[in-house]
Amino acid sequence: MKITGPERYSLSTSSESFTVAERFSKLAGSRLPKLYIATVKGWPIYVGTTRQPMRSRLRYGFQANGESGYYGYAWRHKFSEVQLDIWYQEDAPVENPVLDMETVEAEVVHLIRCAGQWPECQTEIHFHASTKEHRDAAVTIFATYTK
Questions:
Q1: Interval 87-128: pLDDT, tens
Q2: Could you write out the DSSP letters of every residue in 54-95?
Q3: 3-142: which CATH topology?
Q4: In the chain, what are the domain boundaries?
Q5: Structure pTM?
């Protein structure tokens, strides 16, 4: 599993919209599987995965109103400034390409919980059986953050 990153972006947010301080990279705009972490004051408040271009995924999370059962990002109502870190899996399998990143997502959230509490704005998570490779990737990603 080849994971690269993070790329870090600063977002200004309101309940309905966001502005990215710098342009998203080509990787962020790609269909590669991504793990993204929203942080405030250097600590994760939300961990997610997507294959969508980041701008599209964020737009969906900011415009959701519950009509389809999805209410969007909880953090959009609480914070006006967040950092967004994005990691990419460059060698995702053709069959179920998001499985590895969803597995790493759960392991990162678990590490955050072990350090104190669940991410403040985490509203869902995908659980899959993990391997040492997934857990090692999560440890490397989690090491980016300090409380």
A1: 999 999 999 999 999 999 999 999 999 999 999 999 889 999
A2: HHHHHHHHHH--STTS----GGGGT-SEEEEEEEEETT--SS
A3: GIY-YIG endonuclease (3.40.1440)
A4: 3-142
A5: 0.95
